[in-house]
Specification:
With 382 residues, the protein is of the alpha/beta class. It has two domains: 236 residues, no CATH class; 132 residues, CBS-domain. Helix content is 59%, strand content 14%. The chain contains 14 helices and nine strands. The strands form three sheets. Strands 1-2-3-4 form a four-stranded mixed beta sheet. Strands 5-6-7 form a three-stranded mixed beta sheet. The protein has a two-stranded antiparallel sheet with strand order 8-9.
Length: 382
């Protein structure tokens, strides 16, 4: 998930906030100020309830951030690149590039988040017992943070993918079966069953008159179901493409742009006539950049004839794959960096272009031929 605005860096990890966080912040503040705190702590001024609710909501998301930082820092220690953390309406998400290399790594990365939340809960509870136990706002905030972190830890340990508990389950099955695909399918199935349970519970709460709570629970179920289904589909694609190289799927006669080509010629001859949205740029036969429709949009049309591709192209970072690379890994690269296509290079020279459309077309042909995977095309086991 892409952040709407950046907060900064913590321990070298980029932290951002998605605009949906504002909705969650408002709802949580309202719930605490209008319900939880007035029912538990009577006699405060109305403004005190709202201020306490807002502070508690901010500290709740601070706790979520610590939870996600634990995931990110452990993942980084295990050799996985961390692109950042984004806070959003349902909590937080760590953008970790790629998958864990072993079941043990998957387990450690997954379990550290809930353990961190439970440790925070214990620390806040100890602080409340030893230092507070009053009916003042500060005591109320500390007690709330102990409760909510305990709930976060327990909730995230539920064994449904993509929750941390679902990833722990996947790690256990992966370790037992030596099959990440099978482990993902099982964990995703459990995740979808749990999601349907949340949706049903949310509908029941709605029928009981708890409109806000019911909607919130149902939306959590909807989100979990979507994430689990996405994991299942991704695994199906990975299985179908297992053993297939980029060379077998790529466009082996790709168009490229020269650095001296005018933007006007690029638009007329490549983008408009051939429907291209991006092209590799070569100079002396070597890849030097990528030019896209987005790059062109930054130039007024009246300046197109006088503007060279070299002036608007993206020079770096340039992502490329080799013809011998696994196409499933190349597809992950596209997904991780939000790309629609990637140049295929050999010793810096463009020899092909791999796009999402190429992969989709390949999968469609497999389906039309009645093949569940590319392995069957070679006479292997499906």
């Amino acid at each position: 998930m892409k952040a709407s605005f950046r907060l900064g860096r913590i321990a070298g990890v980029e932290v951002g906030v998605h605009y949906t966080w504002l909705v969650a912040f408002a709802l949580i503040t309202w719930t605490l100020a209008d319900g939880f705190f007035p029912s538990t702590y009577r006699g405060w001024a109305q403004a005190t309830y709202w201020i306490t609710g807002a502070i508690s909501a901010i500290l709740l998301f601070g706790s979520v951030l610590v939870h996600e930082l634990a995931h990110s820092l452990v993942a980084r220690r295990r050799g996985l690149p961390v692109q950042g953390i984004t806070l959003f309406i349902f909590g937080g998400v760590s953008s970790i590039a790629g998958e864990a290399k072993t079941a043990r790594d998957e387990f450690v990365i997954a379990v550290v988040g809930p353990v961190t939340s439970l440790v925070l809960a214990a620390l806040f509870w100890a602080a409340w017992v030893l230092l507070f136990q009053g009916k003042d706002p500060l005591s109320a905030i500390v007690a709330y943070l102990a409760l909510i972190n305990a709930m976060l830890g327990v909730f995230n340990l539920l064994p449904g993918f993509p929750l941390d508990g679902g990833r722990v389950l996947r790690a256990a099955i992966w370790g037992a079966t030596r099959s990440l695909s099978k482990a993902t399918r099982v964990a995703a199935t459990v995740g979808q069953l749990m999601a349907f349970g949340f949706i049903g519970w949310g509908v029941f709460q709605l029928l009981q008159g708890n409109v806000l709570g019911g909607l919130w629970i149902a939306f959590i179920g909807w989100f979990l179901n979507g994430a689990a289904d996405s994991a299942r589909r991704e695994t199906a694609v990975q299985d179908a493409l297992r053993g297939i190289t980029v060379r077998e799927v790529m466009d082996s006669n790709p168009e490229t742009a020269a650095t001296e080509t005018s933007v006007d010629a690029l638009v007329r001859e490549c983008f408009l006539q051939r429907g291209r949205r991006a092209l590799p740029v070569q100079e002396d036969g070597r890849l030097v950049g990528i030019v896209t429709l987005t790059d062109v949009k930054g130039v007024p049309p009246e300046r197109w004839p006088a503007t060279r591709v070299a002036e608007i192209m993206t020079r770096g970072p340039l992502y490329a794959v080799a013809p011998s690379d696994d196409v499933a890994e190349a597809l992950k690269l596209l997904a991780e960096h939000g790309l629609n296509q990637v140049p295929v290079t050999t010793e810096g020279r463009v020899v092909g272009l791999l796009s999402r459309a190429d992969v989709i077309r390949y999968l469609h042909f497999l389906a039309e031929l009645g093949l569940s995977s590319a392995a069957r095309l070679r006479g292997g086991k499906a």
